[in-house]
């Protein structure tokens, strides 16, 4: 087992390389960054068999460890998902360059010209769990925004992450980027994470992606700023007047298309006035998909096979085929429930009542609020960002899906002509 001194020595080397690389990246021309990202995408496709073989090792280990089906799905890299990683890099490559944008400028009475421009953070640390596609997403977005990146993936995807990172590193070097642009921490034990979180001399921002426990640990121990979301307790509210056919389709999609992701539906709210008709209908549709329902007293009277929900069920991020259901008396009650039990991630209303839609969108305090659409669209790719670095439920400095623009900060350039104070 590697001791702490050895880990510190390697992390110090990784940090120094990343800091040097970030200085070069910060002034790299946009076309050079885009060219590198396109080359990285090509390299992922060219090495798809190598990546798939490494992923097969992780999948086998996960099955032997008794990992549940939803988590294995998050870990799995099919050919289509590898292609999607490459497509995400290409989309990022084709987007505008977020560095060097003039955010504001003004001329003071004394003649000073003050210009506010976007600049990279420098070095970004990403700590993530089972989804190996994050390795490519994070590297691509960080490079587009002019940042070097230090990655630390979870043990479940270690072989996949290592294979992807190696392909990206080789492609970046072949494209002429400086050594250290993309680096992967070579250990998965918690000691390496704790030490990484003390590297504020080298890491300017850390972004954790994973379960609530991981994120709370990072927040508690990091000595640099943290951009995060704890969990995705996403809601849909079925209003008194809505298109019931569309509502059923939206709910099934939001809950069942990929139940193990953070934008999946976890709590369904139904207006009491339509519950006698709608509750049995949606329960039957969800039952066909294998969803376990946990309802309040009103819902259980209408759907006797549902389990009785406890208070904790309405706070829960199940990440599986379990759904909490509650009847509410109005849009006001729905909003109060969401703002009390939700996680400020993604919440929506299914309605034909304009004033209720207006009230809902103005009063729900979440990063993304939907009207007559599935919560599953909260995703960088679906928002036109290409790959994403994560989804923030913070309010500083980014909120919702985060692309390259969200990985820049700013500085002021002040132009004078001899002014003194």
Structure description:
This protein is globular. It has helices spanning 4-25, 30-46, 48-64, 69-75, 79-94, 133-144, 158-174, 190-196, 212-221, 244-256, 275-288, 297-302, 331-341, 354-363; strands at residues 102-107, 113-120, 123-128, 148-152, 182-184, 205-209, 234-238, 265-271, 292-295, 307-308, 322-328, 346-350, 368-371, 390-392, 400-402, 408-415. The model has no long low-confidence stretch (mean pLDDT 94). A seven-stranded parallel β-sheet has the order 10-9-11-8-7-12-13, sandwiched between helices. Strands 5-4-3-6 form a four-stranded parallel β-sheet, sandwiched between helices. Strands 1-2-16 form a three-stranded antiparallel β-sheet, with no helix packed on it. With 421 residues, the chain is of the alpha/beta class. It contains 14 helices and 16 strands.
Tags for this model:
421 residues; alpha/beta; seven-stranded parallel sheet; 19% strand; globular
């Amino acid at each position: 087992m590697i001791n702490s001194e050895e880990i510190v020595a390697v992390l110090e080397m990784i940090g120094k390389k990343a800091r040097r690389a970030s200085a070069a990246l910060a002034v790299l021309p946009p076309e050079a960054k885009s060219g590198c990202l396109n080359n990285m995408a090509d390299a992922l496709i060219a090495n798809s068999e190598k990546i798939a073989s490494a992923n097969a090792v992780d999948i086998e280990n996960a099955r032997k460890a008794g990992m549940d089906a939803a988590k294995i799905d998050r870990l799995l890299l099919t050919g289509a998902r590898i292609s999607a990683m490459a497509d995400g890099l290409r989309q990022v490559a084709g987007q505008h360059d977020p560095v060097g944008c003039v955010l504001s400028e003004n001329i003071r009475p004394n003649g000073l010209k003050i210009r506010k421009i976007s600049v990279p953070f420098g070095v970004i640390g990403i700590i993530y769990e089972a989804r190996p596609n994050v390795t490519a997403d994070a590297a691509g977005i960080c490079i587009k925004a002019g940042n070097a990146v230090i990655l630390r993936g979870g043990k479940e995807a270690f072989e996949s992450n290592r294979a992807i990172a190696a392909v990206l590193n080789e492609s970046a070097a072949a494209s002429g980027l400086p050594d250290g642009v993309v680096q992967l921490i070579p250990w998965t034990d918690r000691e390496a994470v704790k030490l990484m979180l003390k590297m504020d001399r080298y890491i300017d921002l850390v972004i954790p992606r994973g379960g609530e426990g991981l994120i709370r640990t990072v927040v508690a121990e990091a000595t640099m700023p943290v951009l995060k979301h704890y969990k995705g307790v996403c809601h849909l509210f079925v209003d008194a007047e809505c298109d019931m056919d569309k509502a059923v389709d939206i709910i099934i999609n939001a809950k069942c298309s990929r139940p193990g992701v953070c934008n999946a539906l976890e709590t369904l709210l139904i207006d009491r006035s339509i519950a006698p008709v709608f509750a049995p209908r949606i329960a039957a549709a969800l039952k066909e998909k294998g969803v376990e329902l946990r309802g309040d007293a009103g819902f259980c009277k209408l759907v006797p096979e549902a389990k009785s929900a406890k208070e904790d069920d309405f706070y829960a991020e199940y990440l599986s085929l379990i759904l909490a259901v509650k009847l509410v008396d109005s849009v006001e009650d729905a909003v109060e429930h969401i703002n009390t039990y939700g996680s400020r991630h993604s919440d929506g209303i299914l309605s034909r009542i304009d004033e209720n839609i207006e009230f809902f969108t103005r009063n729900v305090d979440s990063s993304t609020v939907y009207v007559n659409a599935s919560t599953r669209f909260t995703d960088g790719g679906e928002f036109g960002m290409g790959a994403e670095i994560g989804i923030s439920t913070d309010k500083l400095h980014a909120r919702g899906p985060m692309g390259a623009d969200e990985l820049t900060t700013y500085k002021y350039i002040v132009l004078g002509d001899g002014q003194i104070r």
